[in-house]
Amino acid sequence: MAYIIDGKKISNEIKDELKEKVIAFKENGKEITLAVVQVGNDPASSVYVGNKKKACEYIGINSLSFELPKETTEVELINLVKELNQRNDVNGILVQLPLPKHINEDIIIQTISPEKDVDGFHPMSVGALSIGHKGFVSCTPSGVIELLKRSNIQIEGKECVIVGRSNIVGKPMAFLLLRENGTVTICHSKTTNLKEVTKRADILVVAIGKPKFITKEYIKEGAIVIDVGIHRDENNKLCGDVDYNDVVDHVSAITPVPGGVGPMTIAMLMNNCVVSAT
Ligand code: GUN
């Protein structure tokens, strides 16, 4: 029987630890504030932003909300970010993605001061990670590392295979697993013989963006599987990139969807907010 890695429980532990830290901050007269910027009212983004604000409230972090109309221009958004960069009472800045098509996301991300880049998306943050320097790390991959560590799963010396090469998950995931002394392979949609590569994995991280794509034919028996995907299946039920029911008796540990990686992203964002004020 596979060990089910409980992301909800682990994320709650992290949030409780952070809550204690924030109490200590406040006793020293220090406040932490996250500025959350949303442009337009994409329903999925509204849910994510709402969950982030709720987590802030739970931990004792102030959240400043900027809900801008979808017609907001790139220049207006740049000016807001610049203003938030300057404000001493703002520790972290989060601009929810995706942005409306007329706004260049790269330009906005590059406008956020790296000292306040709690998403870890700024090229300076990504570059720092790639050469082992200090800096904010993207929350989903750092959440995966935390899930593994807190489940006592050793990374050092293991064959770690990542399916997906996005800037937000796949690439930073590779750097983080390398930092933990894993042997890392990234595969993607153009990889030939994908099954052969994924079958090498002791730890398989799947962030491919295709519902139930990974079945047991892709996985070595007894491997550890981390599923970063989240989708609705044909019955409108949440599912991941991994066909959970197909693989669960074949693996030694797995993250469920929901309740695996998802809750960790927000916990790590909260961690970055605390770090931003330190
Ligand atoms: N949209 C989906 N996930 C994220 C995230 O982690 N950060 C931001 N800023 N936007 C997102």
How would you describe this protein?
By secondary structure, this protein is α/β, with parallel strands linked by helices. It has 2 domains: 29-114, Rossmann fold (3-Layer(aba) Sandwich); 139-262, NAD(P)-binding Rossmann-like Domain (Rossmann fold, 3-Layer(aba) Sandwich). The protein contains 10 helices and 11 strands. The chain has helices spanning 7-27, 43-59, 74-86, 105-111, 123-130, 139-150, 170-179, 194-198, 244-247, 262-276, and strands at residues 3-4, 33-39, 62-68, 92-95, 159-163, 183-187, 203-206, 224-227, 231-232, 238-239, 253-254. Strands 1-11-8-7-5-6 form a 6-stranded parallel β-sheet. Strands 3-2-4 form a 3-stranded parallel β-sheet, sandwiched between helices. It has a two-stranded antiparallel sheet with strand order 9-10. The longest helix is centred in the N-terminal third of the chain and has 21 residues, at 7-27. The radius of gyration is 19 Å and the shape is globular. The N and C termini lie far apart (42 Å). The site of guanine (GUN) has 8 residues, from strand 4.
